[in-house]
C-alpha cells in the first residue's frame, strides 16, 4: 500500500510539474504537420485572451487553443474600449511599405493638388473596379497610382491597349467610365511585373487598395469611406 501511494504521489507530482503543452513552437509544429490546409504558419503568439493563441499565415490571422483542437476565425474585441484587437493586429502584420512600391509600374493620375496618396490594383473586367472609379470621381486632391492587374479573362488585351496609349489616364478613364475599349496595343508593358507584385503581396482579387499607412483594403469603398481613410 505504501509503495502504491508513493507511485501515485510521484505520478501526480510529474503531472503538476509538466505543462500541458510545450508552447508556441509546438502549436506551430502541430498545425504544419496535421493541418497543412491552413497554409504556411509564420507566427504563433499568445493572444490577450488566456488559452487562445494567435496564428499568422502569409495571408490571414486566426486563433486556436493550446491543444490545437479548435479553430476560431473572426474578430477579438476588448469590451471596455470596444477595440477590434484582431483588426489592429492584422493592420500591423500585413501592412505594406507604401514608399517601397514600384510606382514606375503604375499609371499615375493626379487630381487637384495631389497631396494625398492612394495606390490600387485594378482589372478592366472587374465590376467593383468600375464602381471604384466612379467613386473616385468624387475624391479630389489625391495622387492615384493604378497598378493594372489583369486577372480576369479577356482583361490582358484591354490592359495592353491602355498601356500602349499616348494618354494612359484618358484611355483608362474612357474604358472604365464610358466603356470605350482602346485599340489593340503593340508595345512593351510592365504587366508581367505587376502580376508578380500582386502575387508577392498575396492579393486575392481586385480592387485592392493600399493606403500610405500600409493598410491594404481588399474590395471597393464608397467615396465617403475613401475620404475618411485618406485622412
CATH homology superfamily name of the largest domain: Glutaredoxin
Secondary-structure-derived class: alpha+beta
Quickly give the CATH architecture of the largest domain: 3-Layer(aba) Sandwich
Query: What is the CATH C-level name of the largest domain?
Result: Alpha Beta
What key attributes describe this structure?
disordered N terminus, 21% strand, Nuclear Transport Factor 2, Chain: A, 4-stranded antiparallel sheet, Glutaredoxin, 231 residues
Question: Can you describe this structure?
Answer:
The protein is of the alpha+beta class and 231 residues long. The protein has two domains: 2-93, Roll (Nuclear Transport Factor 2, Chain: A); 98-230, Glutaredoxin (3-Layer(aba) Sandwich). Helices cover 36% and strands 21% of the residues. The chain is built from eight helices and eleven strands. The strands form three sheets. It has a five-stranded mixed sheet with strand order 7-9-8-10-11. A hairpin with a 5-residue loop joins strand 1 and strand 2. The protein is elongated and about 60 Å long.
Question: Which helices and strands, and how do they pair?
Answer:
Blueprint (H helix, E strand, L loop, with lengths): L1 H16 L6 H11 L6 E6 L5 E6 L3 E5 L5 E2 L4 E2 L4 E2 H9 L13 E5 L4 E7 L4 H10 L5 E7 L6 H9 L4 H11 L12 H10 L7 E3 L5 E3 L4 H8 L1
Parallel strand pairs: 8-9
Antiparallel strand pairs: 1-2, 2-3, 3-4, 5-6, 7-9, 8-10, 10-11
Amino acid at each position: 500500500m505504501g509503495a502504491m501511494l508513493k507511485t501515485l504521489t510521484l505520478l501526480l507530482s510529474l503531472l503538476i510539474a509538466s505543462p500541458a503543452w510545450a508552447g508556441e513552437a509546438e502549436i506551430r509544429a502541430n498545425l504544419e504537420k496535421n493541418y497543412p490546409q491552413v497554409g504556411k504558419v509564420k507566427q504563433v503568439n499568445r493572444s490577450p485572451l488566456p488559452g487562445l493563441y494567435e496564428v499568422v499565415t502569409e495571408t490571414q490571422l486566426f486563433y486556436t487553443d493550446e491543444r490545437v483542437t479548435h479553430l476560431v476565425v473572426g474578430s477579438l474585441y476588448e469590451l471596455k474600449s470596444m477595440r477590434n484587437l484582431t483588426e489592429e493586429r492584422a493592420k500591423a502584420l500585413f501592412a505594406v511599405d507604401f514608399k517601397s512600391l514600384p510606382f514606375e509600374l503604375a499609371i499615375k493620375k493626379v487630381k487637384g493638388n495631389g497631396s494625398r496618396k492612394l495606390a490600387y490594383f485594378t482589372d478592366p473586367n472587374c465590376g467593383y473596379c468600375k464602381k471604384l472609379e466612379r467613386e473616385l470621381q468624387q475624391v479630389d486632391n489625391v495622387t492615384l497610382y493604378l497598378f493594372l492587374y489583369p486577372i480576369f479573362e479577356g482583361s490582358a488585351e484591354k490592359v495592353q491597349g491602355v498601356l500602349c496609349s499616348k494618354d494612359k489616364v484618358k484611355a483608362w478613364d474612357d474604358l472604365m467610365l464610358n466603356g470605350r475599349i482602346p485599340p489593340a496595343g503593340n508595345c512593351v508593358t510592365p504587366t508581367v511585373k505587376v502580376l508578380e507584385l500582386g502575387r508577392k503581396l498575396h492579393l486575392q482579387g481586385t480592387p485592392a487598395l493600399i493606403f500610405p499607412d500600409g493598410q491594404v483594403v481588399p474590395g471597393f469603398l464608397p467615396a465617403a469611406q475613401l475620404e475618411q481613410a485618406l485622412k
